[in-house]
């Protein structure tokens, strides 16, 4: 995993992996969509990975949107672009070149045939036009298989932009694909060499970013609280439990969106994780409440003392 930092005046930071998940809808991530587009496609902002500047001209952004909230030029199942790209390869075929040459020869043959037959009204053959072939090419596909159509679009787009590193921004595929197809998409993306950024409410494997009160939250953005958690814990710090708590934190922030988060012991798998999770919320600016049911008295006192110190 790595962080991409956009030089947009706010140092907007995104946690990226081969598959990057932005939990939510196109409306929630609208500013990020345009920021990525302005940076990669329009070269409007500089982009950094750590302190190293990224040459974003090496990347090609391809947006496929299933949301009516964001209409992209790379429309899903865009038969027109598929046909155009297919035809560009067809033109390289020796058989296509032979057809064009044969057409010219046929024009000459028609001219001489007119002379031989002595027709006063000449019969002619129009010049060869690409549209003659294009209009007779047809796409035959299983319209019931949305995943295969999406996969076809991705592969053709990749082939057209083979000189660059492709970034596919897929917006809310769950609006088109069923659960089985979403699982297929998850496996497919994680096997590719391209980069995928998916705005979705579905669970995909990859680095997860959530947005809360216009702030992007991910495992890297929470690292600033780690040393404080080590100091405040009533027991020895454990890395694996901290990582579990971070995942729970991100999941709860996504689940509750802008509502006050109710932190309860059944929200997590064990008491120790709950204490880590409580400290993450205690140290961050997100509004939350605590349900003390099931929490042992000594830990209730511990939480109450932290709350008193905060006041």
Instruction: Sketch the major β-sheet.
Output: 6 strands, mixed
Counting structural domains, the number is 3
**Assigned CATH architecture of the largest domain:** 3-Layer(aba) Sandwich
Q: What's the CATH class of the largest domain, please?
A: Alpha Beta
- Radius of gyration, in Å, reads 29 Å
Q: Work out the strand percent.
A: 15-25%
Order of strands across the main sheet: 6-7-8-3-9-10
The best one-word shape is elongated
Which class best fits the helix and strand makeup? alpha/beta
Low-confidence parts, pLDDT < 50 over ≥5 residues? none
Portion of residues in helices?
40-55%
In short:
The protein is α/β, with parallel strands linked by helices.
Report on this model:
The protein is built from ten helices and twelve strands. With 311 residues, it is of the alpha/beta class. The chain has three domains: 140 residues, Rossmann fold, CATH 3.40.50; 55 residues; 89 residues, no CATH class. A six-stranded mixed sheet has the order 6-7-8-3-9-10, with helices on both faces. A four-stranded antiparallel sheet has the order 2-1-4-5, with no helix packed on it. The chain has a two-stranded parallel sheet with strand order 11-12. Strand 11, helix 9 and strand 12 form a beta-alpha-beta unit. The longest helix has 24 residues.
């Amino acid at each position: 995993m790595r962080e991409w930092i956009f030089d947009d005046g706010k140092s907007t930071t995104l946690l990226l992996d081969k598959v990057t998940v932005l939990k939510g809808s196109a409306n929630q991530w609208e500013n990020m969509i345009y920021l990525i587009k302005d940076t990669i496609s329009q070269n409007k902002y500089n982009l950094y990975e750590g302190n190293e500047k990224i040459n974003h001209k090496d990347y090609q952004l391809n947006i496929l949107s299933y949301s009516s909230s964001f209409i992209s030029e790379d429309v899903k199942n865009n038969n027109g672009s598929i046909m155009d790209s297919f035809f560009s390869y067809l033109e390289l075929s020796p058989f296509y070149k032979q057809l064009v040459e044969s057409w010219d020869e046929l024009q000459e043959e028609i001219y001489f045939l007119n002379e031989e037959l002595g027709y006063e009204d000449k019969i002619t053959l129009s010049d060869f036009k690409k549209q003659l072939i294009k209009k007779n090419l047809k796409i035959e596909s299983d319209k019931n298989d949305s995943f295969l159509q999406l996969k076809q679009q991705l592969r053709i787009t990749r082939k057209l932009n083979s000189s660059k590193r492709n970034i596919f921004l897929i917006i809310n595929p769950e609006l088109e694909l069923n659960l089985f197809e979403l699982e297929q998409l998850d496996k497919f993306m994680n096997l590719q060499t391209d980069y995928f950024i998916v705005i979705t409410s579905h669970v995909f494997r990859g680095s997860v970013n959530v947005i809360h009160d216009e702030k992007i939250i991910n495992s890297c953005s929470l690292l600033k609280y780690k040393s404080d958690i080590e100091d405040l814990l009533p027991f020895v710090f454990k890395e694996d439990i901290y990582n579990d708590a971070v995942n729970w934190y991100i999941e709860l922030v996504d689940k509750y969106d802008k509502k006050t988060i109710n932190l309860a012991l059944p929200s997590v798998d064990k008491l120790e994780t709950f204490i880590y999770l409580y400290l993450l919320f205690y140290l961050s600016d997100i509004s939350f409440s605590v349900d003390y049911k099931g929490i042992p008295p000594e830990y209730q006192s511990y939480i109450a003392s932290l709350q008193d110190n905060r006041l």
